[in-house]
Amino acid sequence: MNKPLAVTIGHSACPHDCPSTCALDVEILDNRTIGRVRGAAANDYTAGVICAKVARYAERVHSPDRLLKPMQRVGGKGEGGWREIGWDDALDLVAEKFVQAESRHGSESVWPYQYAGTMGLVQRDGIHRLRHGKRYSGQFDSICTNMAWTGWFVGAGAMRGADPREMAQSDCLVIWGTNAVATQVNVMTHAARARKERGAKIVVIDIYDNATMKQADLALKLRPGTDAALACALMHVAFRDGTADRDYLARYTDDPVGLEAHLASRTPEWAAAITGLSVEEIEAFAALVGRTPRTFFRLGYGFTRQRNGAVAMHAAMSVPAVFGNWRHEGGGAFHSNSDIFGLDKSEIMGTADRDPNIRYLDQSRIGAVLTGDAAALSNGPPVTAMLIQNTNPANVCPEQRLVRQGLARDDLFTCVHEQFMTDTAKLADLVLPATMFLEHDDIYRGGGQNHIVLGPKLVDPPETVRTNHFVVEELARRLGVADRPGFGLTERTLIDTMLKAAGDIEGFDGLQRERWIDRQPPFETAHFLSGFAWPDGKFRFRPDWTGSPAPNRPPESLGAQGPVAGLPVFPDHVELIETADGAHPYRLATSPARQFLNSTFAETRGSRSREGRPELLVHPEDALRESLGDGQLVTIGNGRGEVRLPVKVSDTVRPGVLVHEGLWANTDFLDGEGINVLTGADPVAPFGGAAFHDNKVWLRTEPV
């Protein structure tokens, strides 16, 4: 029986795939039990505020639905038959299946598959140690950041930007393509402070009236995939009206003369026809930025999840360069600080053992890989064994039918290490129960802010649950690579060595005392006032789309991706998106729900009850034309498949645009298939990625 303890406060970091990586204060009720979770008030980015779903984290840790014992499949895949198996037997089985796969098809037939279900560097990235030590197939991580990071990097040459805390010093804050209320609540904390203390205006640009749009002084609801047209019109007005900062342009940018000539025809009227905004809205926005030097552009991921997403990001970040907002505190732009942290993960990842000749498989194209597409397999052997950690591909990946078809193969052995019985776990041969972030040691860095934050173990896990680190170490021992670099070390040792190598903190213990490290560069560096990160120090209006380095550039074996010939010379709107047509008259976006984070929290009862059920937002004009009412079932589809779900008639969306907020579990849909049945996995130019919000669909009403 647990000995009751006085309530204490432990300190950690939110582990989830959200740029904020909030610093947390956690109530510890006893050695296995937590209470309320709060944002750390002492952290000047988190500022005491976290999202409601993480505040309720006790509901996840202590959920009656949590996986607690290793389970082996009995009967057919997906039929739901399981038997308990001991940990040693389970890990022996995984090792046996991996050895069998390697003996039949070579080491590349094993694919360790992972992503960002935890952002902890040890528990997330340690699987690569096993990958490299055994020469298993590599993974090209394409599913989340590629378009956004590529678009930013081709302009700035580095993944950093203005201090995100400067949002509170802004006179105009532009929140572009991110529903921050749902996914980055701290953005709204600093925005609200700017509004209260400085009278700042908040501009929100998105495709529907989500919770963030409702906070805006100026809300711009445009057609999906048309953000670059808006950006071009803003810059056109700046040159036309004399609000472009020509001194800044001459000093800090590559070809302002060429850009101005290019934008001569990109008028507000031109952009209005493309975006669906009015000319008056575009002019008002341009005038606001033109008279407000301290305009801060907070650029999100959502608007880049289109087939022209990299182009859209580059165009949007070109706007503050034209207006010269970078000169000013509270001005400029920010997307991600992923370059600033200076932590060397090579020991955690075992990169000393990486063989450059081993093939890479595209994470987003898992459906094509597992169903034997030769190109997706790089003309190599089939994948016949997998270890899946920190992700739920049967739910979150595009081309869901192919993913599930591949995972259901009888000749594929799949081990899923998870916290709940996800859609992916249901298709596995073996399911292993995983710890949660308060039950192990780890370290975090938040791309959307500026801190390295420690997440030490605060409570003991259930006795039958194991860490990702444990599974990787035990498999390495069974597979004969436990003597390779990085193995045989505890989480604390790996963190301690990495921190000491960084040079400015006394290892694990020092960070535990300090709680976080502020890595924000000085103002001149963050605002690129000492030059952008290219040899000539100039911001690139003329990007080298395929010749430039990039933060997540595909390996040479994969090369450039998508229709690169369609990429523009200067910022521009390009019709690379899935435009509606006669057979598919609607555009569908799969936007995030407030109570979920990707598929995480879709299993907790509080989040589910607050979200209600999977629904499709339909504009009243479309509902009238289709004779639809609230709650009526419809089927939407395209060449990838179809999904049934009830309608919610709402003027929050534009006519011709459908929005589904998720991600709900596949089993929450009427036919057991989720919304990603409809999303495509074709790579986005130039360096790949999945265009989740870029789908054309038809709609068919169901009989009442």
* Largest sheet composition: 6 strands, mixed
Strand content: 15-25%
| Contiguous runs where pLDDT drops below 50 for at least 5 residues | none
Question: What is the CATH level 1 assignment of the largest domain?
Answer: Alpha Beta
How would you write the strand order of the largest sheet?
A: 5-4-16-15-14-6
Please tally the β strands and state the result: 25
Helix residue percentage: 25-40%
Query: Remind me, CATH topology of the largest domain?
Result: Rossmann fold
Shape: globular
- The gyration radius over C-alpha positions equals 25 Å
The appropriate CATH architecture of the largest domain is: 3-Layer(aba) Sandwich
- First-last Cα distance: 55 Å
Average of pLDDT: 96
Q: How many helical stretches? A: 24
